[in-house]
Amino acid sequence: MMILLMLLLQTTPVAPIVKGTALPPPGTEEAQVMAPVEALLRAIETSDGAAALAATLPEGTITATRTGPDGMPQRQTVRWGDWAAKLSPEPGPAVEKQGTPAIEIDGNLAMVWAPYTTLIAGKPSQCGYNLFDVVRGATGWKILNVTYSARSEGCTP
């Protein structure tokens, strides 16, 4: 019983994830992880559902988290196919500017964490953080899931 208690109380120190300081150089494993992320961002900007699906895995999801008007957390999750089918142009050019990512890789699993701001016709529409779950398979790195926070206040271009 004492050993079980000691194991339950044991903590392994883990260094905090440091926000990225630079984009990965071409040819690195980090750059390979970022390739489907960058492809998905381009697909969003061009409203190209087929390109979005090419960068993702069909069993994955995209989840938006927000604070509702009542101050309560809200969450909406959609499968990639359903999301891509509804991808349509915004009124005016839409660009998602992603900040410098933090990238963590362990074998065939990677995580990309980065701030973003979405601009519609050059004006901030929403901002927050993207969290990409990226996995390596037989055809290379693909995005399994994306979870992002979305707010409309405090966004800068």
Can you give a write-up of this model?
With 157 residues, the chain is of the alpha+beta class. The chain contains 4 helices and 7 strands, in the order αααββαβββββ. Strands 1, 2, 3, 4, 5, 6 and 7 form a 7-stranded mixed beta sheet that branches. It is globular. The chain starts with a helix and ends in an 8-residue tail after the last strand.
Concise overview:
Helix content is 24%, strand content 42%. It is built from 4 helices and 7 strands, in the order αααββαβββββ.
Mind sketching the topology for me?
Elements: H1 2-9, H2 29-46, H3 49-54, E1 56-67, E2 73-79, H4 80-85, E3 94-98, E4 102-106, E5 109-120, E6 123-137, E7 140-149
Parallel strand pairs: 1-7
Antiparallel strand pairs: 1-2, 3-5, 4-5, 5-6, 6-7
DSSP helix count? 4
Write down how many β-strands occur, each being a DSSP E stretch of 2 or more residues: 7
Low-confidence residue ranges: 4-8, 10-17
| N-to-C series of helices and strands | HHHEEHEEEEE
Terminal-residue CA separation:
56 Å
The coarse silhouette is globular
